[in-house]
Amino acid sequence: MADPARAGGRTGRALYRLVRHPRLVALLDRLTPRSVRARTTLAACLSVAVVLAAGSAAVVLLLRASLERTVEAGAREQAQAVARLAEDGRLPAQLPLDHGSDFIQVVDANGTVVAASQNLTGHPAVAPTGHPDGRSTFNLRALGDEHHQRVTTITATTPTGPVTVHVGAALRTVDAAEDLTSAALAGLSALLLLTVGALTWRATGRALRPVEAIRAEVSAIGDRDLDRRVPEPGSEDEIARLAGTMNAMLERLEAAGVRQRRFIADASHELRSPLTVLRTQLEVALAHPDPEVRTDLVAGALEDTGRLQSLAADLLLLARLDTTDHGWPDEPVDLAELVRTTVTARGAGAVPVTVHARVAVTAPGNVLWLGRLLTNLLDNAQRHARHRVTVRLTADRASGEAVLDVANDGPPIDPADREKIFERFARLDDARSRDDGGAGLGLPIARDIAAIHGGTLTVVDAPGPTTFRTRLPVTSGPAAGRTRR
């Protein structure tokens, strides 16, 4: 004999292989709706179908139970009337049928038919099957007509002994009402499902039409027409917010593209002028017969080459800053030590630099980049200062930031130009020479470095010397904000 556990295991494995069959999986994949519209409509129809099926089944069951109780009550009343006749000894051999009853049969204790309705005259005793109380529904073929019946059985005591009264009531009306109700509910359910499907399909299509318009517009936007915008619906729903977000993103992309093109144009312009001067110097040096003049020209060409090298380094640094994650630098940097080291390494310049850095402040960052930030601020300050430059490092305990001020006593900056100076290749004084004014990249690089370190670089709006203030988040701990002795 086969082991049932092994047989069950084989059956389970066979069902698993059938479910995982590639053709069945491919068929189910093809039958799965692809669009959101179709999936939404299918989900709505399935949900309504489940609810309608449950509701229809409940209605049919309740209707049948109610009708069967009514039929059974009529049959029981007639059985009780026959039982009273039997108890009184007035039971006739042929019993009349009431409306709704199929047959009546009275059987004594020996199984002999004592009385019966006309349609069962001459037939043997009918023994219903089912529950002992006679509450059963079955096909009775004794009448030559097959249909469902409810048979009610009552026992009565007569002068000649106990008898059993069987009354069968037809369920034709119940079956007909059930069939008619089921057909009506099926038709109404089908009509309701079609209505729900059509309304869901239409409503979903109307709701997704703006999404399709947005998709089509975004698909048509290329890298040279970022000025285009997606259509925004007049509603204030999620799709309208999506369109607004898309347009805001396109505005940022357009602004980034404009900045990139402007940066490329400015960089090309900045590189073209010194390259032209350098080529002219080399051509003149090559053609000039005087060795001393040639030496001077070569020295000037070397100086221009150095400026080109610095400009190229600044451009590469800007490109690296633009692609650097803002959370990248995290090594601890002693800002006070960085200030003293940077100022000392510059040596004595045309304008002296005074340092006030008595507070030990440690900030997370990149020491080389923070040194470049301070160097650029010092270059800018010494370029415009008349008599002195002051560097001051303090700790703002309220905000938990280090404050680095680089001030010079040069000409003040107009409030309208305090943001313009941080634009790349920006120069406030167009008449000054490029040798004195630089390429206009120092302050933008300094601000980008501050932003990468989670800080800010601004011009202080206050009377007195022109002050560039850098705020950087500091490392929490006892070293932050401790005064040096």
List keywords for this structure.
single chain, disordered C terminus, 10 helices, five-stranded mixed sheet, alpha+beta, 17% strand, 485 residues
- Strand runs, count: 15
- Give the topology string: H per helix, E per strand: HHHEEEEEEHHHEHEEEHEEHHEEE
Strand order of the largest sheet: 1-3-2-6-5-4
Q: What Rg do the Cα atoms give?
A: 50 Å
% residues in beta strands = 15-25%
Q: Mean pLDDT, nearest integer?
A: 80
Task: Compute the separation of the termini in Å.
Answer: 96 Å
Largest sheet: 6 strands, mixed
DSSP helix fraction = 40-55%
- Count of runs of 4 or more consecutive helical residues: 10
Shape: rod-shaped
Q: Any overview of this molecule?
A:
The chain is α+β, with helices and mostly antiparallel strands and 485 residues long. The protein is built from ten helices and 15 strands. It has helices at 4-19, 22-31, 36-87, 172-220, 238-287, 291-322, 335-346, 367-384, 434-437, 442-452; strands at 94-95, 101-108, 113-117, 136-139, 148-158, 161-170, 331-334, 353-356, 359-360, 362-365, 389-396, 401-408, 456-459, 466-473, 482-483. Strands 1-3-2-6-5-4 form a six-stranded mixed beta sheet. A five-stranded mixed beta sheet has the order 8-11-12-14-13. A hairpin with a 2-residue loop joins strand 5 and strand 6 (161-170). Helix 3 (36-87) runs antiparallel to helix 4, helix 6 (291-322) runs parallel beside helix 10 (442-452) and helix 7 (335-346) crosses helix 8 (367-384). The longest helix is centred in the first third of the chain and has 52 residues, at 36-87. The protein starts with a helix and ends with a strand. Mean pLDDT is 80; it is low at 131-139, 430-435 and 477-485.
